From TrEMBL:
Upper classification of the organism: Bacteria, Pseudomonadati, Pseudomonadota, Alphaproteobacteria, Sphingomonadales
Full protein name: Alpha/beta hydrolase
UniProtKB keywords: Hydrolase
Species this chain originates from: Novosphingobium aromaticivorans (strain ATCC 700278 / DSM 12444 / CCUG 56034 / CIP 105152 / NBRC 16084 / F199)
Superkingdom: Bacteria
Residue intervals of the AB hydrolase-1 domain: 4-238
GO molecular function terms listed in the Swiss-Prot or TrEMBL record: methyl indole-3-acetate esterase activity; methyl jasmonate esterase activity
Length: 245
């Protein structure tokens, strides 16, 4: 059986993976879905957040699983969590055995999330629900209008509960350029789970990233930006398929 470290996306917490984690645990796997440090914290706490710090946080969770004899270890990230996965994999590729991007930011070296946003162009529905707080240190979501952008085909009761739990997101990691090398990040098997109905990171943007960083095994889900709610069974299967033989 494998170990999974699941890294959530912006404004969310590790709780968002609960439906998928339940499926994987029922199949005998070990699942860790932590909430990243600083999420929803004070202005000072969020100002202290760095992408490098988040990457080390994720890598340490992978190392902890291996220290317990759990393995192989798969590190997966959703949405902005892809930045964390890339950073962790470059920092310590020996800590994990495979990496997975779930409609996530899989960027080439030298590019930031903010930089890719400029390539994407406007996404009016998504842009309209984001507001800066603490002088731009963080952003928050208009939870009353987020559901059609984040989870339009997911079960309404699960969506309502999820939207109520969204918190402020530290902004700095979005501006930091990714550094990945073939020798480290590129040494790991990669899977990209693309979600064709995504309104947050549209499928065109996902496929652009796949083309910019070739080499990933691509799994296609007819899902919104919250596949852990809309297609948990299929997502669990995609994560299991990423376990190295």
């Amino acid at each position: 059986m494998a170990g999974f470290v699941l890294i959530h996306g912006s404004w969310h917490g590790g709780w968002c993976f609960d439906p998928v984690a339940e499926i994987l645990r029922a199949r005998g796997h070990t699942v860790v879905a932590p909430t990243l440090p600083g999420m929803g914290g004070t202005a000072e706490e969020m100002a202290a957040v760095t992408l490098d710090g988040w990457g080390e946080f994720a890598a340490q969770h992978c190392r902890d699983l291996k220290a317990r004899g759990v393995g192989p270890v798969v590190l997966a990230g959703h949405s902005r969590g892809g930045l964390v996965v890339s950073t962790a994999a470059e920092r310590d590729p020996s800590a994990m055995d495979a990496i997975v991007y779930i409609c996530a930011m899989m960027l080439p070296s030298g590019m930031s999330r903010a930089g890719f946003k400029e390539l994407e162009g406007p996404n009016p529905a998504f842009d309209a629900i984001i507001s800066k707080v603490h002088g731009g240190i963080a952003t928050v979501i208009d939870t009353q209008n987020a559901a059609p952008v984040f989870a339009q085909i997911s079960p309404p009761d699960l969506v309502e509960a999820a939207m109520a739990r969204l918190v402020a997101e530290p902004h700095a990691p979005r501006s930091q350029q990714i550094k990945v090398t073939p020798e480290r990040w590129g040494s790991l098997p990669r899977t990209y789970v693309e979600c064709t109905l995504d309104r947050t990171i549209p499928i065109e943007s996902q496929r652009r990233m796949i083309a910019m960083s070739p080499g990933a095994n691509v799994v296609t889900l007819e899902a919104d930006h919250s596949p852990y709610l809309s297609k948990p069974q299929e997502l669990a299967e995609a994560l299991e398929a990423a376990i190295p033989a």
